[in-house]
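Chapter review: from sequence to fold.
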Amino acid sequence: MQPTTHALLERAGFRPGMSCLEVGSGSGDLAFDMAHMVGPFGKVLGTEIDETKILLARADAAALNLTNVEFQLSDITREHPDPDFDFVHARFVLTHLSDPLHALVNMRKALHPGGVLVVEDIDFRGCFCYPDNAAFAAYVDLYTHTVANRGGDANIGPRLPSLLTAAGFENVQMHAVTPASVDGEAKLLAPITLENIADAVAAEGLATVAELRRLVAELYEFATHPGTVVSAPRIVEAWGRSRSRPKA
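The token string follows.
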């Protein structure tokens, strides 16, 4: 994701010296990149709901000697940081939320008037492989239904522009990318993802543990077979600017 996300940030107006908020910062990889990009006169705050990831990110930031990035335990669905930011970014956050519009409004409240919001999220209907593979099709179906059963939307990507507009953003733009590969670790995204959501899938009664183990094994076999093609979900990128205060 690094090349496409960096290109997106630049397209949306990311520049040195900015004050930036990274919502759903995980273990901090992108926040670290952003900290390098804003330079010593900028700052980055990463927020995350998983305390373990916050601790890992803080430790890595110290090891990298990054003094312009901080990490904070915070839930954008419940609160928003002070309106102290020029730029807010969130990747693969809204897909999991039952009320993504509320989260976007909170992100807007964290921005200075005229600040920029950038979101990236998935459209699982854009997944593909070659040749057709039954295990891959089952993976797409299981992921989509598990997210839906838990209140999210695995196909939220195309909704992003309208959601940004409804949340009070102007000059909304969009772009879409679909990472795909014939070799390398990117092809392992499907089996690794299914492994990680296996407990949730089983808890929803969508597949048995034995069925999931079989599917994961088939996905690994397919991914490592020479000549096969595996894609990630289609990723929709959308960005807009918060409304400036009206002139007196």
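Two observations follow directly from the output. The beta strands are 19-23, 43-48, 69-73, 85-91, 111-123, 129-130, 169-177, 180-181, 229-231, 234-242. The chain has eight helices and ten strands.
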